[in-house]
Structure formats: structure tokens, C-alpha cells
Amino acid sequence: TSASQSAGIAGVSHCARPSFILKPLSYYPYLSVLQNRLERCMSIVTSMTAGVSEREANDALNAYVCKGLPQHEEICLGLFTLILTEPAQAQKCYRDLALVSRDGMNIVLNKINQILMEKYLKLQDTCRTQLVWLVRELVKSGVLGADGVCMTFMKQIAGGDVTAKNIWLAESVLDILTEQREWVLKSSILIAMAVYTYLRLIVDHHGTAQLQALRQKEVDFCISLLRERFMECLMIGRDLVRLLQNVARIPEFELLWKDIIHNPQALSPQFTGILQLLQSRTSRKFLACRLTPDMETKLLFMTSRVRFGQQKRYQDWFQRQYLSTPDSQSLRCDLIRYICGVVHPSNEVLSSDILPRWAIIGWLLTTCTSNVAASNAKLALFYDWLFFSPDKDSIMNIEPAILVMHHSMKPHPAITATLLDFMCRIIPNFYPPLEGHVRQGVFSSLNHIVEKRVLAHLAPLFDNPKLDKELRAMLREKFPEFCSSPSPPVEVKIEEPVSMEMDNHMSDKDESCYDNAEAAFSDDEEDLNSKGKKREFRFHPIKETVVEEPVDITPYLDQLDESLRDKVLQLQKGSDTEAQCEVMQEIVDQVLEEDFDSEQLSVLASCLQELFKAHFRGEVLPEEITEESLEESVGKPLYLIFRNLCQMQEDNSSFSLLLDLLSELYQKQPKIGYHLLYYLRASKAAAGKMNLYESFAQATQLGDLHTCLMMDMKACQEDDVRLLCHLTPSIYTEFPDETLRSGELLNMIVAVIDSAQLQELVCHVMMGNLVMFRKDSVLNILIQSLDWETFEQYCAWQLFLAHNIPLETIIPILQHLKYKEHPEALSCLLLQLRREKPSEEMVKMVLSRPCHPDDQFTTSILRHWCMKHDELLAEHIKSLLIKNNSLPRKRQSLRSSSSKLAQLTLEQILEHLDNLRLNLTNTKQNFFSQTPILQALQHVQASCDEAHKMKFSDLFSLAEEYEDSSTKPPKSRRKAALSSPRSRKNATQPPNAEEDTGCRWSRQEDTKPKPTKRKRKGSSAVGSDSD
């Protein structure tokens, strides 16, 4: 066989280690389940084709594929993986894939969609490039379903992001759609989705030549589709008008607007005018397509799992990730439209303490930093109001705006005022020819809000004394019907809930769901505590007695296969745990069968969640902890899933299937997460398997180990503090990078433990079973702890002191401590410093504290060191005095510096020394009679100005006797030369001596260059004051 014949897939050696598909994460001790699966399939393909001819390779692949569906899937996925990881072999592998595929590439299309939705951000750059290449080939081949993959690809293009990788993706997908235009025109939904996507992206692409070139390609693409296929674009609905408004000044779109307004028939005979578009509600799929899967997952998580009042860290994370750049201003409109039009919570969520939609929207409004972005965000919020029709539109689309205004009235009247003002002014200004329609739409919205009891009355909102007179007058003029109230304008009383059927079979939320908690956006939560302490995990609701309700799984049973339905019914009827465990094992076995329909996992998870509600109530940990009691506690039927998971290989398809089942369970019962952690900690069968939790975390909707771990530990903290303490050692040991980098988990723990549990954790630390701090992050964690409650801070310091970490590691925290605000940290640090020998760095930090009559910290520790280490302290103070006296000082500018950290100045050192002198006055301590101190005081006195000589005259007088008795010190002629001409007794200066401070400092620099160098080196740890 010639070399050319054996090239391609047959030339790939199965011995070579394949490239990583996903980015290797340093803190992941193993590969992901998906990657293991793909690489195993690839090794099957390469082992069959290595070293044989092309024909033999094709015959071997075809023969293997014919054995059955699992073998067909393995070969398809193996070839797919080779395409992603071996660009040189991609063309050949694609041809082989086209030959062996028996399902029209369906397996490959599903895997591409899975990777795009779940793993795209973790893909290696090479694999991303190859994925685009593969989609281009699928489109060229006209593979059925390729349009769906293209739409998923477009969803990954983030709005408000002009980074190189995002621009590359936007341009790559646009090139595919442009090149294969005839294929695009065959799919109406793809036309509409592509127009919606690129109309939105045009706004972001401006500035550089590259972005301008891409923008022009996007303009040409959108204009051609809008003009040729306007009726397909019409399915977008009213949000098409919103996007066209944003690009209206681009010449091509100006001409389009003229046709839309003055000559609609030119676009399509069926198009009657702009009102037709505006009265059509935009489908959810368009609103959702402008959020990446990661954004969508995080938003859905916040609106379904995060409790109101505990949202700040999630909002901060989201803002850091997506809203921190100037270009991201445009993304806020996409987010607000998505929340209003797509996130429609169930009755159960609406009546719970889960973070409401209006709070997230209020937060997004407060993050707008430009007037244009703020106006666009407000338009996005009110957009469904303008042409609202109760028959076509949902109350859920207009509810967030009215609730943002209602709940912002007390804490943020300015937000309410600006929204009410916008609502009034948009009526005549949105589109003057349709002013009557807009007024009717807004009126219908308000009327529907009152009818559905979202708010009982609008008068308390429209005629509130907190609003200025002009706005109240405008509201009375525009909406007189809603400004008169049957009762005085006081806070709206809670009404009985009114259930309403929505188009998504979910009912609306009445006002009572929100009135119990005063509105507070994330920026203001820090002020909620009267002491000014910032708290996140604080108040715990009193747990009510649980009333056992009969389990009803009837709605789910009809959706299950007959055999699975019978087993679930047996599980329901099971009288004892052992019988239930046997049935549960049978269910797991059936799930793992080859012909099991994975679409039934969600229904099965719903059944299991209902049947085993009792598993998630009460304490998990046995009262008395022994090996026997722990093993007995993990014998619950639901834990059979965990046990089976532990017995499997991670690259096994069954392993992935069980993870999918757990992921479905996790969505319906979040407590399953910490129950898995407990099982992995307590069960003998799970010994050494704690890393399975990471696979579980990646399989969940969160898809992130850190977020998942923190959420599960938070749920554990709220349910069972004993279990939290029991899990703590293993969690810190197994996941050090997730637990030691920040104080998040530590805060959860110290917020709820008692003194006995604290002592238990301290013992774990000292026995080597637990490490809660490490040198590289301990300082940041202790700084974070300064905002915690008093007992929490003392706990954190106790746990820190149990570790063998040098105190010098955290001594810079002194620069953050204020004597009125941080007494806990100051007292703990003071007691620890008294046990240490002072180093120069310690003394420097202690002296850098600002002097205040009520702050005794510095004087206390200096006095203690005087008693124990007087000679060492004297040397350090001498060194610091000389260093800080050797360079010009701009003391006033330092004091007014914007830096919050304390700066060490010469005056500070002298003030602290003077306080120490006063404290030692009536003692026998002779600290100030030591030679190093006296030499340093002479050195400073010789060069300081008269104001400082007067201010510290008592301090400097201590050095006079030393100078008189040793006018010629034997040790250093240079020191004598510096000190003798500057005696306070000889206050009359030589004729050429100048009062000007600058001259005096410059002469000192000329005669003393070496200390200048030492000063720069010595102060580098804290930052040079001279800077």
C-alpha cells in the first residue's frame, strides 16, 4: 500500500497521547467525564485503523458499526473527536464519518450541541476552530439538523463583548451563513434568528478597522435578508423594531426605515405597517438567544435557588464576569428582556423567599453607567407595556416594572421617580403617530396589574409624597384613573392571592409575596445592619413543624415506561428500608440498560424526589458517631445511586448516565448535593472517592465546582450544623483550591458553630486533620473577616492561631485596622504579638498606625517589647528613625493620600515614641537611655525643623545628656559629625545655615547617601513613602 493510501485516519498511531479537548484545569486531578468518553471512543477508532490501508480501515470501521447501536455511537464519536483534535486528518475523518454514519449524523449533531451548551468555554482553541470547520462541512453537505447547530453556535456569541475570541466566533459563523446563503434561505427560523442575532451585534462592533469591516458585513447580511425575506423576519415580533431603532442611523437601515414607515408593501405584500410588528409579542426563543448558555444558567440559578437578601455575591460574580467593561453596557437590555419575557417563575417559587425578578432588574438598572445605556434599559423594561393587550400578552412580562417601582419607593425613591417619569414621557415620544396606541397599551397594563392584584392600588405609588410635585402632577394628568384611592396613600395591604393561568401554565405573583421584605439592592445591603457590619449569612428562620402530606406521584407515572412505572410503584409501597433498597437497585439497573430512554430521567427524578422527601428532613449525622452508625446512616434507598456511582469507572457511559440522573434530582432537590458529600465522607464503599463530587458538580446546571460546593455547603449550614462541622475536614482536604482561596466557606462555618464545635475544629487543625489557612491567602481571608460579626471574627482568629503560620505573614493587616471599627482583630493580634520577638517589619507596621489618644494598641505592644526585648526593639527603632529621616518627606500629601492604608512617617514614629516615654515615666524601665535610641534621636534632631523640635522637645531632651557626656563618640565619627553641630544648646545656627526646609534636606542628602539606599530597600515591603 502506498503512503498516500495509508494516510489519514489510518496514519494516526493509537499509541500517541491525543490532545486535550478541554482546557486542563490545574485544580482538577482528573479529566472530565465527557473528555474521557470521547478519548476512549477515539482510541477504539485508532486501534482499528493504525498501520492498515485506507480500504482495510474502512472495512474494519463498517464491520464494527454493523454490530449494534453502541458500536455505531463509539465509531461516530471517535471520528468526531479526531476531527476536533487532529486538524491535519479532519478532511479524511469527515469523509469516513459520512460513510459509516447510519443516522444522518444525528449522534454528532447532538454531541456538538452538548459541547456548545455545556463545555464551549472550556474548549481548547484548536478544538473551537475545528468545531467551526466541522459545522461548515455539515452545512455544505446539507445535513438535516445543521441549522439547529448554527443557532446554538450563534447563542455562544456574547453581546457586549469585543474580545478577540468573541469577535472571531461572530465572524466565523457569519461567514458560514453568508457562504451558504441558499441553504440559509430554506429555514425560516434560521433566517429570523440570524437577523435577530446580528442586528443586536452590530451595535457592539465599532471603533477599530477590523470591527468596522465586520460591522459592514453584518449590515449587508441583515439588510439583504430583511429586504428579501421580510415575512420570515416578521415572526420576531416587536423586538425587531427595538433592534432596528438602535441601528437606525446607519445609512442602509435609514432607507429600510423609510420603507417600513412610508412604503411597507415594498417589503412584503402581507406587511401592513409598523403597528403590525409592534402588536406582535416576541417569542421567548429570540429573547433567550442573546444570552450565552453560561449567562442563562447563572440567571436561572439566581431566580430559582438564591434567597432574597443573599444575592450579593452572585450579583458581584455576574458583574465581574459579564458587566465590568464599557462595551458591556449594551448587554443589560438583553438581560432585562430575558428576565421579563422568559423567566416566569412557578407559584411555588413566587410564594417563597427566592430572589424575585424585580430585585435583579433593579440591580441591573443601578449598574448602568451611561445615560444611553440607562435609557435603553428602561425601554427594555417597559417595552411590553407600550402595546400591551391582555388577550395576547402575559401579565408576567409587565409585572417586574411595576414591582421595581413599588419596592424602590422607600429605599430608592430616585429609581422609582426616574421610571415613572420615563413611563409618562415614552407615551408621546416613542412614535408620535401611534401615541394613542401607546397610551392605550400603558393604560391596559396598569389596569391589568390592578385587576390581577399585582398591586391592590396604584395611588400610593403615583401620588406618593416622596415624588416631586412636577412628577406627581404629570402622573395625575396622564393617569387620573389610578391616582384616586379609596383609602389614604399608605403602604399597600396584602391581598389574597389570585391564581392566574398563563400561556406557560404558570400563575402570577400577587403583592403579598414581596411585601414581607423591604426592597434592597446589592449596593445597599451592607447598610441593613444597624452597626454597619456587612453580613450575608446571618438570620436563620425558625423551622416550622413539618406536616406530613400524602405523596402523590400520579402526574409522573403516566410518563414512565410500564416496567419502570411498576418498580416506582413498588418503591412507593415498600414497607421497610431493605425492601426499598432492593427495588431501588432494580431501578438503577434498568436505567443503565442500553435501550433505556434517557428522556425519562427527569420524570424519574421527580418521582424519587417526591417519594424520598423524608430523606431530606431532619439530621443526617447519627447522634453517636461510630463506624457502625455511619454505615447504617448511608443505607438509605436513594444512596443506592451514590453507591453505584462509586463502583463505576469514570469513562463508563453508565457513569455519565447516573450523573445525569443526579443532575435532574439536584434541580428538583438541591439538598442532594450535600447528601452526596456526606455519603462520600461516611461510606466505606466510597473511601478515596471524594473526587466524584467534582464530576457531579460539572454535570449539574451550575457546571462549576466552586459554585456548586459553596451552594451545597450553604444548604448544609442552614439544615444541619453538626453535619457541616463533620464534613469540614474532608472538604478542606479534598478541595483546597476551592476552600482556601477565599473566606466564603470559613464565613459559613463560623456564622453558625458554637464554642464546643469551635474547640473541636481547633483540635482537628492541631492534629493535622484540617488545614483552613495557607500562607498565600490567609491575609486576604482575615481582611475579609473584618466585616463579620464579633463571635465569627474571634472564631476565625482562634482557627488561624491553631495553624503554624508565622505572624509576619499577616502583620500587614495592621494597615487595615481601625481602633473603633475592628476591636476584635486588634485584641487578637495584640495578644499574639506579645508572644513574638519583634522583627523590624513588625515594628514598622506597629509604628505605622495613626496616632490617636484613644488608640492604645501601639503603646501597649511597644511597652511590652520594652520589658522583654528592649535591646532588639531599640535597634529596630533606630533603624526606622534613620531610614525615615534620610529622604525628603511630603508629610502633608501623605496624610491626604487617597490610599486607605497607613503610611509610616517620621512624625508618626516620634509621636508613638513620645507616648511610650510618657507611659514609662513612673517606671524603672530605662529604654530611652539605650545608646541606639539616643543616637537616633540626635540624628533626627539635627535635621528636623523648629516646629518638630518644639513639639517633641521632651523626647529630644533625653538625648542631650548623652551628647554632653560623649561629645566624641568612639564608634562612629560620621555620627558624631552629624550630631555635634546640631545641639539644642547651640541653637544659633552658622551663618550659611538656611531656614528653608528644602535646603536643609538637600544638604542632609549630600552628606548621607547610603541611608537613602537602605531606606528604599527596607521599605519596599510596604511601599516607599517618598513616592
From TrEMBL:
InterPro entries referenced in this protein's UniProt entry, alphabetically: HEAT_Ints3_C, INTS3, INTS3_N
Pfam families hit by this protein: HEAT_Ints3_C, Ints3_N
Domain annotation Integrator complex subunit 3 N-terminal: ranges: 71-477
CC annotations in GO: cytoplasm; nucleus
Main location, first listed in the record: cytoplasm
Region annotation (Disordered) ranges: 962-1027
Coiled coil residues, start to end: none
Residues in the signal sequence: none
The keyword Nucleus appears for this protein: yes
Sorted UniProt keywords: Cytoplasm, Nucleus
Domain of life: Eukaryota
Annotated ranges, domain Ints3-like C-terminal: 568-959
Subcellular location as annotated: Cytoplasm; Nucleus
Family: Belongs to the Integrator subunit 3 family.
Protein name in UniProt: Integrator complex subunit 3
